[in-house]
């Protein structure tokens, strides 16, 4: 599995966990942070990982096309 695919998978999993926290942990209170804010942070991190994986995939495919012709 390439690094780009790992970043895509990790990003999607992180985003989904963050989305679940954002949607379903509204009434849960913990001392330091609210779980909805943690969910938003995880969604942002997941989005960055997804974008990084997409960028790596496009960059890899461009380098392969460039070396062929």
Description:
There is one protein chain. Helix 1 (3-24) runs antiparallel to helix 2. The chain is mainly alpha-helical. The longest helix is centred in the last third of the chain and has 34 residues, at 35-68. The protein is 81% helix and 0% strand. The protein has one domain (3-68). It is rod-shaped and about 55 Å long. The mean pLDDT is 89. It is built from 2 helices and no strands.
The number of domains is 1
The rough form would be described as rod-shaped
Query: What is the ordering of alpha helices and beta strands?
Result: HH
Return the structural class.
mainly alpha
Helix content: over 70%
- Total strands: 0
Poorly predicted ranges (pLDDT <50, ≥5 residues)? Answer: none
Strand coverage percent: under 5%
Number of helices in the DSSP assignment: 2
Largest sheet: none
Mean pLDDT: 89
How far apart the termini lie comes to: 26 Å
Mind telling me the C-alpha Rg? 17 Å
């Amino acid at each position: 599995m390439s690094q780009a695919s790992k970043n895509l998978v990790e990003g999607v999993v992180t985003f989904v966990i963050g989305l679940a926290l954002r949607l379903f942990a509204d009434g849960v209170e913990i001392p330091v942070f609210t779980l909805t804010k943690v969910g938003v942070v995880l969604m942002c991190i997941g989005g960055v990982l997804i974008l990084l994986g997409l960028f790596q995939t496009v960059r890899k495919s461009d380098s392969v096309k460039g070396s062929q012709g």
